[in-house]
Amino acid sequence: MATKTWTINQIEYKGRTLPCRITMGALLRFKEQAGHELPVDKQNIEVPLEDNLMFLYCCVQSACNADKVEFKDSFLDFVDNTDPGQLAEWLNAQSKATAQKAQASTSKTPPAKKK
Asked: Whole-model pTM?
């Protein structure tokens, strides 16, 4: 089965391109469905596979809801149809985007003081 490259804002799922992005709704959905807040990798603590899958699922649910795109699959249906390589691609895209944002915010120089 040929797969398309996943991007930071969309995924290919069951032959459809679905919106997929981090939103406040995705974070709240994750907390409700997983029973805990999303682990933050601040100390190089590895995030469990189940949490990564659940977070991806919540990002799809939330983005589809916001964009009025129908998505009714259960979590287990979603993971049964998700390729591990595609999950890794999406996580890498998220990581790169986060690093770029952090670099951009630290590289800004403060304005010169007026004399």
From this structure: 0.79
- Rounded Cα distance between 83 and 96, Å, is 20
Over the stretch 87-104, which tens digit does the pLDDT of each residue have? 888 888 887 877 777 777
pLDDT digits (tens, 9 = 90+) for 60-84: 999 999 999 999 999 999 999 998 8
Task: In whole angstroms, give the CA distance from residue 42 to residue 13.
Answer: 30
Q: Which two tokens stand for residue 23?
A: 């939103």
Cα 105 to Cα 41: distance, rounded to the nearest angstrom: 19
Note the maximum CA span of the chain.
65
How would DSSP label each residue in 44-90? SPPPPHHHHHHHHHHHHHHHHHHHT------HHHHHHT--HHHHHHH
Note whether 25 and 62 are within 8 A (CB).
yes
